[in-house]
Amino acid sequence: MPLDVTNSPFNEEQTEQLNRLLPMLTDQQKMWLSGYLSAAQSTASIQDANRTTQGQTATTGGAAARSVTILYGSETGTAQSLAETMTQKLEATNLDVTCSAMDDFKPNKLKKVEDLLIITATHGEGDPPDNAVVFHEFLHSRKAPKLADLRFAVLSLGDESYEFFCQTGKDFDARLEELGGERLYERIDCDLDFDEPAAEWMAGVLGELRKSMDQASEAELSGQQTAGTIVSEQPVFSRTNPFLAEVVDNINLSGRGSNKQTRHLELSLEGSNFTFKPGDSLGIFPKNNPVLVDEFIQALQWNPDETVSVNKQGDIRSLREALISNFEISILTKPLVEKAASIFHNEELSELITPDRKDQLKTYIDGRDMLDLVQDYPPDGLEPESFVKILRKIPARLYSIASSYDANPDEVHLTIGKVRFSAHGRERFGVCSTQVADRIEIGEKLPVYIHQNPNFQFPEDPETPVIMIGPGTGVAPFRSYLEELEETEAERKTWLFFGEQHFSSDFLYQVDWQKWLNSGVLSKMDVAFSRDTEEKVYVQHRMLEKSKELYDWVKQGAAIYVCGDEKHMAKDVNETIATILQQEGDMTPDEVESYLNQMRQEKRYQRDVY
Fold first, then answer.
1. Which terminal Cβ of the chain has fewer Cβ within 10 Å, N or C?
2. Do β-strands 494-500 and 281-284 pair in parallel, antiparallel, or remain unpaired?
3. Which DSSP symbol is given to 511?
4. What confidence tens digit (pLDDT) does each residue in 356-387 have?
5. Residue 585 has what DSSP assignment?
6. What letters, b where the CB count within 10 A reaches 16 and e where it falls short, cover 508-529?
7. Contact 128, 73 (CB under 8 A)
8. How far apart are CA 39 and CA 45, in angstroms?
9. What is the H or E stretch that residue 152 is in?
10. E-assigned strands of 420-523?
């Protein structure tokens, strides 16, 4: 009797030949063939079942689920990281998701988007990040379409110490509603400590998306989510669980007579499993100056050993330790002063926050800290526990990495300028920079994490020339990049513009640049020392002096990288680049702006400014 070859891998002719051969096979050969066919039949049955299940999904939940588009505007990579996390969460529930940077999204496709999630940072004084500029302009132009069929939700990232806190997210949220979109979930504005509010927003959006699906789909997705939980391969150490990195070296780079103090900090990453690329940053969770904390406690005549809660989990610390390690007291913000007024019971402070004294409040908080506030507007009957509830956590400080992972896999180097200034009758100090400069000894440890910055990454194509503009500590990522080129023996045209105050005392990493110039790792270098000449000379002046050659590099496809001070240097450099394009390229202002936007989209003009 012939074997059952239903669902077998053989065609009709092969099956007839097989049956003719059966009488000639041994019992062992027949057993092997029978087992082979049985396995083939089982596989086919499974495939049929899968096809049936997929068909059922397509006619239930799959058909009901709307597609979700996630767009992010990111300056340092945080918004992108959150967007990618949200994408994983949505894909785990079998939703159709598209995630991209705003400058990679074609605005004319917006009309077809069903559910739009925007995750965006705010840059500078309320401006959109570089990779969100074009989309932001489009959405606020007359070309923006009516969006009556769109549902949207916005997660906005910012820093409360800035006047225009989360302004870009607020802009998107208001404009999408104005264009007819339906708000899927209320916008949440995140301060620097964004983990909890971002998680709340993600959970809320997911909940609303599930509500829009029918009962069959909801039940199916619930089973899929349980069975298909994403297994995280995140490193043990991260932003929420920082690695304690030992200080290996802490060198003052500034020479005698310098007006500055710039530190070269080396930390051991052995055991962290961290990796990084040139352009990435290291986050450090600093501590407040104990002297400032003691003066603050004394001003209020509080007991430094009294205990307070430091988080929502109810963890307890002494007041002094909490103010040193957990809470920010070094700056004032408008929201913080408003919260303080609600618990200080100080009539003058309550008057300061009224709308008609908006400008006076803005002037007051500039350059002042919490010690100023309690001295100028003493609270009445304020208890420590009530006070710490209005404070935000000490945010991490990000520093561009100044070393190559390939060259130093167990170390990370940073270039940190000590922040020190006088205001309102006393000296002020940067929280982290002063801790590094004055209070950290070799052998001590700092809590750190790697912050990847996908918006400041160097080109992989060896044919792409690289122009680097980094005055002061802004030169750090370029040291990382050149060290990596040396280690990997990669060949590329490179040009560095560096500026500082004095040649003799402020020429950071001078020996390194000289070594790389001699070896060819660094092709060209131009320097500007602003205090060595009667008329101040900055990097933008050196760029103008070399405008023809710089323009030739750009026309050859060079990528431009700018790192450093945002308020002055970055704006001046941007205007200088525009001037060079206009003069050497014979472009109109509109053509210059279009050309720069194209460079941004091609990742040929990237900035890491602060």
1. N
2. unpaired
3. H
4. 999 999 999 999 999 999 999 999 999 999 99
5. T
6. bbeebbeebbeeebbbbbbbbb
7. yes
8. 10
9. strand 151-157
10. 420-423, 426-429, 445-451, 466-469, 494-500
